[in-house]
Structure formats: structure tokens, C-alpha cells
Write a structure and sequence with these properties.
The structure is a homodimer. Chain A is of the alpha/beta class. Chain A folds into 3 domains: 130 residues, Rossmann fold (3-Layer(aba) Sandwich); 163 residues, Dihydrodipicolinate Reductase, domain 2 (2-Layer Sandwich); 82 residues, Alpha-Beta Plaits. Chain A is 38% helix and 27% strand. In chain A, strands 7, 8, 9, 10, 11, 12, 13, 14, 15, 16, 17 and 18 form a 12-stranded mixed sheet that branches. A 6-stranded parallel sheet of chain A has the order 3-2-1-4-5-6, sandwiched between helices. In chain A, helix 2 links the parallel strand 2 and strand 3. In chain A, helix 13 packs antiparallel against helix 14. The first copy, chain A, is elongated and about 80 Å long. Strand 12 of chain A pairs antiparallel with strand 12 of chain B, so a sheet runs across the interface.
Chain lengths: 424, 424
């Protein structure tokens, strides 16, 4: 009993082309497995030179997406152009034309997901978005179906491959941020949009989709705390290693009753934790849920070929299942970053002369911050040398107050470095 | 638009009771999330003392499973008694009565899964079996849905928590197998059925279910190679550590065109591989698939509370989706263990006197086995001391021939130790 579905693909970048190739070249096995016959009715890109793909794979090409959206024979629209507009309009128009939609567009879903899902729910259409978070990892499905009976309490994600690769290369090769960024660019990981990666916004987009999945909450990403990795120096990476930590850019979600804590920033995690071993450009999500316990999902976070796996599984999934939507929650209080209690890694550049530590300690003590360990890393009299501190749990607001005071001391060359610690 | 389902639970062991508790105490959130209302109509156990659970959770109790199977009002039968019979009959009778089935029974599915799924397919009933492999990890769903568009090429699984815990404790605490087994028993990990765990059969059962999921092949488990961990000594664990390896009991599946290689045995894997860090009683599966790439899934492999997460997600899933079955393949050739090419770790107990290594090397050379490294671990003249060898790739048959010859030498105290190496 075969099921037939006709699809149109809008956007023939790396993921679009890989999806086209995977379906055209390797789909026969999947067809046997699922009894779903997929026909690619039309492919579309505004770049007319992409028409060569039409010849290569014998598929009609158009540069006008509405030849797909308005085609009454097409069942599923696969949106792979990325960005906010015109992707948003294409998706909404496709839904209104009665089509199911598959998309990899995290920036769009993070900003307008709420409205898009409301339209889909009203029209009873499916939206597949497995490819929007963690590329090839079947994470969306695992959370929304596999963990449907669970309450997620904590989630820590390495959601951006580019920044993970940069931090990995800095640590492995003892190179600084700029050099590692160049290596990432050479490898094709950091592109023209690398600001989104480096500053943490790409991870934040994905975190907001995970927030919807885990908690039924679409956060306003503008209100969330996000900090990128460009401030992380090789010095810090080496010092935390001595303390048995690794620095990762983490997307963090913690839920406690009505309180939800969502943020993205570089974080010290214990080097024996499974997330510490997530190297190169891999992505991973570690989470703790009740009753499932601790879980880790690991895999390729980007790249056309790996991501096409998620696009194809979405095409198959929307073909078979009735739309099911996550119930939204509104009575949520977002934890403000200033009210956090955390342990912190702090690095000062301080003049190597008597009494400096006393001055620093006094300011910290006055703000109720107690020190777990302190090490002066070099000796060079009268010069600025690094002092590394690990604090006990302290209020984030107080730490910032303390640092601004300390940075005004004449014996300190600011700004001092501050990185949060998570003792997973 | 609420959906109502009535379920009956047969078997109130740790998983059964945890499922009951999770539904009765924590289901309201899930109900909001999914619009699925679950009513537990009846619970059943042959042990009459389990009736106390009926009072605790206000659910009708019976000691006769047919009061569930024949109850026309019950939609889903949850089988959690384990073992082959009567579980098989209960499941088949439930399907025939038009019920969907959820089961955690790996031993049964491994042996009779093929026939049970054929009946379910004919009757168009659903079988949920997420809890049968890797407890709380949503692995079945990830492979069958998330990776539905993929060809799995290689899979390595730590599928048994008890043996992983024993090997972990041996390595961490430098204790021998027997002592570590006692620790596992103390922790409630090894029970009366621990032979199934220790000898590798539990992992083999799960591997055969994964073979069905990944390749559409139900193997005859009697024909597959399985080797447990009781022969692994603390000595071996320490020696491989020096060589940057870790010993894990791995379930291995490799597919190359029509050839399928399935086996379970202790294996040396590189200590920097993510699977090496899977400690305590955790389970994990690492796999390589096209186009998804490398993926790792990690979580609790057993225990009532974690496993109840998978049981509940199955109950919800079978309530929503139409039955879909994996197409079976028959034209498969199973790779025989003797025809494998592998690298090997070998440990001889050899008399510390001149000429011994020459004798061993001569035998190995005569069978085309070349040595990558060799170390004598101690010196004690005229006594038996360990010699550790790593071979280059060699045919398994030849290695066994060589070892039986070597073990007859008067300078050797056999049997010598042999462990396969996988350079993931």
C-alpha cells in the first residue's frame, strides 16, 4: 500500500542540494522501508545558475517560489532559504494553500515560530523542523516524542559547531581566537554570517526552539542573556585546564516550577563530563529529565549532507502523522541573569607587588563573595601578571559590582575576565 | 479535542510499578501537552501481594491477565512481565483482541519478534517497544523515525548496564571481576538473572532488535557470536590502559552491501572515543549512518523509573500513530566470526627465560600474523610472567589456530587471553 507525496524544494544551498541528491540517488531503500513514494515536482532558487541542478537531477526548475506554493499538486513545501523574509511569507502562504511544510530555519522559528505554529494548528497542517536544531541529530523528535512523558529540568547544549570548533582548535593547538577563527573559515565552518555564530545568537535561536519543545515557551530572545566567545583567550583555556575544566559555549535551560532560566554564554564545565569530550564542530545536548534521567545526544550539527538526513525524516514524518502541537504555557517567569547564583572563574591582570591581593579580596568580601581558590600564574615584579580565582557561589549582580570596582584600581589592568562555572 | 485511551498493565515489577506511579502522579502535564487522557483500567500481577499497589493508586487489581486481555474496553495492553512465556501468548492474544501492545521484553522480541510483528502487521495493530533497548534512551524512535532516511553502516553499542558497571568498577577501583560483580549485586544491578548479563546474551537480544530496526533483519541469535566479560582480568584492564585503550562489552553491527556482521564481545576501543567515557551503568550507542554521519545516544539503560519514560512515550505514540512496520530483508549473508579481519590484544603467561618470544613469534609468523607491539610486563626469572601483544590485522581463524598451538608450549601457561580491537 504505497503513499505518494509530491514535494517542492525552495532554496538550493548546501542543505537543499544535498537533500535533492539524497532523494534522487539513495531514496529507493527508504521507499521500500516506508512505502512512501516521494516525487520532487519542482525545485526553486532565485539564483538562475542553480538551474544546472535541474539538468543534473531531471527535475523542473523555477526561480519563482510561487510556482511551487501555488501548485495544487504539491503536498509538501521544503523551505531551505533561511533568514526571516521572504521565508516567513513563503511558509505562511504554503500553509494557507493546504501544504505541509518542512524547514531548517532556526532564525525564523526563533523569532516567529509562535505565530507560524498557530497558523499551522488552525489549518491543521504539519510543520517539520528537525533540521533547525543540531543538524543531523534527531533531537526534536527525541524530545517531542521520546521524552513526551518527561519533565525536562536542565538542558545544556553545544548547539553551534563553528564556535565549538574554534574553542577546540584553541585548546588543541594552543592558538589564539583570531587564528582559530581563520582555521574555521578555511574549513568552511565560519562564513559571511559568522557574527551570528561567534556572538552566540545562532545558539540562542536554537535554544528558543528547544524551550518551545521542552517547556511550551517561546521566549523573546531579545530579553535573554547571550554572550559570545570572542573574549575567550588562550590564557583562560590553559588556566581552566589546570583546574580540570573545559570552556564550552553552552546554551542553558533550567526549569524550576514557574521559573525558567535561559541563556547562552561561555561556561566552565568539568573535564570529565561527557559534554567536555564533544570536539571539533560536533553538537551535543545533555539533559536531565524526570523520569528518564540523564541523556546525551551527539552528532553533526551542520553541513548539507548530514542535515539532509533530518530534512528527509521530516518529509517522511509529515507524510504519515497527523499534526500534533505542543501546548503553550504563559505563566512563566524568566530568571534575570543578575539574580543568578553561580560559581565564577575570574582572571585579573594585576601588578606583581605586595598588597594587591588584599585590595582585591577586600572588595570581594564587601560584596559577600568568597574565594574558593586563587593562584598567581607568573612572577614578574612591578609588571602585570595574571591572577586566577575561582569563587564559591555568589550572586551575579555582586560579581559585576565587584569587578567594576576592582577594574578601577591602579594595580589592575582591566577589564578582568569573568566566566561562569556549571558543575553539571 | 481530547483522546481517551484505557490501558491495562500486566506485570508490576520495578518498571511496571514505576510506570503506574508516573502515570498516576505526574501525568497531568503530559495530558495537557498531548491532549491524550490515559485511564489505567486494570493492573495485573501473579503475585497477589502486589494488590497493595491497587490500594495505593486506586486501580482495580487482578491476578488473571485475561481479565485485561479479554476486556473489550481496554485499548492498550502494557506487557512488563519479561521472559518468553507466557509473555508471548499474552501479547499475541492481546493483538488478536484488537489491542495495541507496549512491551519492554527484549528476550521475547529477540526470539519471536519476527512472528509477533507479522501478526501485528496483519491485524494492523501497533507495538511499542522503546523500553526493550537502552531503557530511557529514545533510541528505537530515533533510528526508526529520525534516521528513517539513512543507511546505518556501523553501530557499536554499550547495551548492558550491569557489565558496563562491572568493567567500570574494575578499572576505577583496581578490583577483580568477582569483587566488582559483588559491588554490582550490592547496587541492585546484577540480580538472579545476571548470567544473561555477564555472558553477553542480554546485549545480544538488544542487538538483534537493533538489527531489525537498522537493517530489517531478524537474526537467529543462536548463530551469532557472543562472548561475556567473566574472562576479563584486572591485569588486562590495566595493560590496555597503558596502550590508551579501554575494554567495553560491545554489541557490534556492520553492514556492507549484502553482508551483515553482528556480534557481542569485550572489545578494546581507543580511550579518547566518546564510548570510552560511558561509565557506571549507563548505556550508549554510537553509530555511523549515511547521510547523517556519526551519532551518539547516551542515557540510563535500566531501572524502573528511567525505563518508565520509554513505556509512557510508547503508550502515547501507539495512541496517535497508525502502525508502520519495517520492511524485512531476506537476502542477507551473515559474516562468520572466523572470517573477520581484526587487530587483537593477546596476553600470554610465559616463562621468563631466553627463546620464549622466538617460539611464539615463529608460530604467529607461520600463520601470517604480524605483531605491532610486544611488551613483557614483569621480570621474574624462570617464573610465568605476562607478555602483551598487539597484532596488525589478521584473520580470526588464524589467530585461534596460533593460540591453540602456542598454549601447548611448555613455556606457556594457557589459556592465553585474546581480545578484539576496534579502532572506531
Amino acid at each position: 500500500m504505497k503513499i505518494y507525496k509530491k514535494i517542492g524544494i525552495i532554496g538550493l544551498g548546501t542543505v537543499g542540494e544535498a537533500t535533492l541528491e539524497a532523494i534522487k540517488k539513495h531514496y529507493s531503500l527508504v521507499e521500500k522501508r516506508t512505502s512512501l513514494k516521494i516525487k520532487i515536482s519542482k525545485i526553486c532558487d532565485i539564483k538562475k545558475e542553480k538551474k544546472n541542478l535541474a539538468y543534473k537531477y531531471s527535475v523542473p526548475f523555477t526561480s519563482n517560489p510561487y510556482e511551487i506554493i501555488n501548485d495544487a499538486n504539491i503536498d509538501i513545501v521544503v523551505e531551505l532559504i533561511g533568514g526571516i523574509e521572504p521565508a516567513r511569507t513563503y511558509i505562511l502562504d504554503s500553509l494557507k494553500k493546504g501544504k505541509d511544510v518542512v524547514t531548517a530555519n532556526k532564525a525564523l522559528l526563533s523569532k516567529y515560530g509562535r505565530g507560524i505554529f498557530q497558523v499551522a494548528r488552525k489549518l491543521r497542517r504539519n510543520i517539520g523542523f528537525e533540521a533547525s536544531v543540531c543538524g543531523a541529530i534527531p533531537l526534536i523528535r527525541s524530545i517531542s516524542e521520546g521524552l513526551v512523558g518527561c519533565k525536562v529540568r536542565r538542558l545544556y547544549g553545544i548547539l553551534n559547531g563553528t564556535t565549538n570548533y574554534i574553542l577546540y582548535r584553541m585548546r588543541r593547538d594552543r592558538i589564539d581566537f583570531k587564528e582559530a577563527l581563520k582555521e574555521a573559515q578555511k574549513k568552511g565552518l565560519a562564513e559571511r554570517h559568522s557574527e551570528l555564530d561567534i556572538k552566540g545568537f545562532d545558539a540562542l535561536h536554537k535554544l528558543s526552539i528547544l524551550s518551545y519543545l521542552c517547556f511550551g515557551v517561546w521566549p523573546k530572545t531579545d530579553n535573554l542573556y547571550v554572550e559570545g566567545i570572542s573574549r575567550i583567550s588562550l590564557l583562560d583555556i590553559m588556566y581552566v585546564e589546570e583546574l580540570s575544566y573545559v570552556i564550552k559555549l553552552l546554551a542553558i535551560a533550567k526549569k524550576d516550577k514557574e521559573r525558567l532560566d535561559l541563556r547562552v554564554h561561555p561556561t566552565l564545565i568539568p573535564s570529565e563530563h561527557p559534554l567536555s569530550g564533544v570536539n571539533s564542530s560536533y553538537n551535543a545536548v545533555w539533559l536531565e529529565a524526570y523520569p528518564a534521567g540523564e541523556l546525551l545526544f551527539y552528532g553533526e550539527g551542520a553541513g548539507g549532507i548530514p542535515t539532509s538526513s533530518s530534512v528527509i525524516s521530516d518529509i517522511i514524518n509529515v507524510s504519515f502523522v497527523k499534526p500534533r502541537f505542543i501546548q503553550e504555557r504563559n505563566n512563566i517567569i524568566f530568571t534575570k541573569i543578575g539574580s543568578l547564583f553561580n560559581r565564577y572563574y575570574i582572571r585579573f591582570m594585576a601588578k606583581d607587588c605586595p598588597g594587591v591581593l588584599a585590595k582585591i579580596s577586600k572588595i570581594l568580601a564587601s560584596l559577600d563573595i568568597s574565594i574558593a581558590s586563587v593562584t598567581q600564574k607568573e612572577r614578574e615584579e612591578k609588571k602585570f601578571v595574571p591572577i586566577v580565582m575561582i569563587t564559591h557561589e555568589a550572586k551575579e549582580e555582586s560579581i559585576h559590582k565587584a569587578l567594576s570596582k576592582i577594574d578601577t584600581l591602579s594595580v589592575i589592568k582591566g577589564p578582568s575576565q569573568l566566566i561562569r562555572i556549571e558543575d553539571l
